[in-house]
Write a structure and sequence with these properties.
Layout (H helix, E strand, L loop, with lengths): L6 H15 L7 H5 L3 E10 L5 E12 L5 E8 L4 H17 L6 E7 L7 H15 L8 E5 L5 H15 L23 H16 L8 E5 L3 H12 L3 E7 L2 E4 L6 H9 L14 E3 L1 H5 L3 E6 L8 H6 L2 E5 L8 H9 L4 E2 L1 H4 L2 H15 L5 H26 L3 H20 L4
Helix pairs in contact: 1-3, 1-15, 3-15, 4-5, 6-7, 6-13, 6-14, 13-14, 14-15
The protein binds glutamic acid (GLU).
Length: about 425
């Protein structure tokens, strides 16, 4: 059994190890180790039945040393401060790996979205935006979607903030609808980045996407877009799962058909019944024999127990923090390479950056431009990680953390401490 998983403790532990492996001067690490600001808010909402409920929420601003705070807002019944702190820290590291001029932040509300009506969800989102309005802004802190939030949520955040400012403020959020200043390609960007990073790694090993079988855990925005793009690029997606369980077909699933099925109402995979497709549990899915396993759900999925039994050749982390530190050690011993979250899922925040650049310059780019620039930035960071792996003889995760920490620590050093 892994000891009780604490996401923030986990990320600090990995950073400490990377400081050693990368021979980084530790003087400024105390600053990077802790978030700059943690804001807790209580959010009253008048429910449809006339009762009043108060929800807990957070916005953790980890670092703005490399640029404005940046990161999504998560709605989940298990969200807590430690998780939001870890997610904010990963954002600072992710933006540094991607070489985009942002720091890191994350927001969260402890809520089960399935228990709210659309009106209640809108009221909660507006109240949360009102509560954090004094600490966000296009040049201060820019929220975006995360687990259980989407472009509709961002439209409400944008409108509430703009009403408070008395003017349209499109640059205050990214991941908004294209009609409100969102970027083409943002919705699928995280999934696209996952496929691109897999492609870079396979190419180095002399393989192509159409040589491999892929298993995807989680069919939210990231998992479903990754599944679709893997499928269109010729990979054999043999299993996918959602909260209701998984489906498996050794010869490869028809992802187009599954996407249509899921989009057509409140469908869950447990209701997808097609000859030749077998229903499996989420646990069985993680242990399938495959080339590439893509955890695309939540943290703490690949535990030590799972890592001992896993049968894939590579792991590509589409979720934030799916692998525990204990599991990482086992995977390294078993020589199963892991492309870490802060690189593999950076496509989302990279296209968020493009969206923000378009907003502040009042430009609109086409999808091809966006996708081309995404690939360019991701290749550049992939090459940086490869160089660090050679220099430090370390895992992909260590290389990504070293790459990020060197940039963050250098920025702290050159700026010095205020006052
Ligand atoms: N929530 C996404 C992430 O974890 C995107 C954040 C953003 O675009 O700011 O990377």
């Amino acid at each position: 059994m892994d000891k009780a998983y604490d996401p923030f403790e986990n990320v600090v532990g990995v950073m400490e190890k990377a400081m050693e492996v990368g021979h980084i001067n530790k003087q400024m690490f105390e600053i990077i180790k802790n978030p700059q600001r943690e804001t807790k808010v209580y959010l009253p909402v008048e429910m449809d039945d006339g009762s009043v409920k108060v929800f807990e929420g957070w916005r953790v601003q980890h670092s703005n040393i490399r640029g404005p705070f940046k990161g999504g807002i998560r709605y989940h019944p298990d969200t807590n401060l430690s998780e939001v702190k870890a997610l904010a820290t990963w954002m600072s590291l992710k933006c540094a790996v991607a070489n985009i001029p942002y720091g890191g932040a994350k927001g969260g509300i402890r809520v089960d979205v399935n228990t709210l009506s659309k009106r209640e969800l809108k009221a909660l989102t507006r109240r949360y935006t009102f509560a954090i309005a004094p600490i966000i802004g296009a040049d201060v802190d820019i929220p975006a979607p995360d687990v259980n939030t989407n472009s509709q949520t961002m439209a409400w955040v944008l409108d509430t903030y703009s009403q408070l400012q008395g003017k349209p403020c499109p640059g205050v959020v990214t991941g908004k609808p294209v009609e409100l200043g969102g970027s083409r390609g943002r919705n699928s960007a995280t999934g696209r980045g996952v496929v691109l990073s897999t492609k870079f790694m396979l190419e180095e090993e002399g393989m192509k996407l159409d040589d491999v079988s892929v298993v995807i855990q989680g069919m939210g925005n990231v998992g479903s877009n990754a599944a679709r793009i893997f499928f269109h690029r010729g990979a054999k997606v043999i299993a996918v799962s959602d909260i209701s369980g998984g489906i498996f077909k050794a010869g490869g699933l028809d992802i187009n058909e599954i996407s249509d099925f899921l989009a057509g109402g409140n469908h869950l995979l447990k209701d997808y019944n097609v000859p030749g497709v077998k229903h499996i549990t989420n646990e069985e899915l993680l242990l399938l024999n495959c080339d590439v396993l893509v955890p695309a759900a939540l943290e703490d999925t690949i535990t030590a127990e799972v890592a001992k039994k896993i049968q894939c050749r590579y792991i590509v982390e589409a979720a934030n923090g799916p692998t525990t530190a204990e599991a990482d050690v086992i995977l390294e011993q078993r020589r199963i390479p892991v492309l870490p979250d802060i690189f593999a899922n950076s496509g989302g925040v990279i296209v968020s950056y493009f969206e923000w650049v378009q907003n502040i310059q009042e430009l609109t780019w086409n999808r091809e431009q966006v996708n081309e620039m995404l690939e360019k930035l991701m290749i550049r960071s992939y090459q940086e990680l490869r160089d660090i792996r050679e220099e430090c003889h370390c895992s992909w995760r260590m290389a990504a953390y070293i790459s990020a920490l060197r940039k963050l620590i250098y920025a702290e050093e050159i700026k010095g401490i205020f006052p």
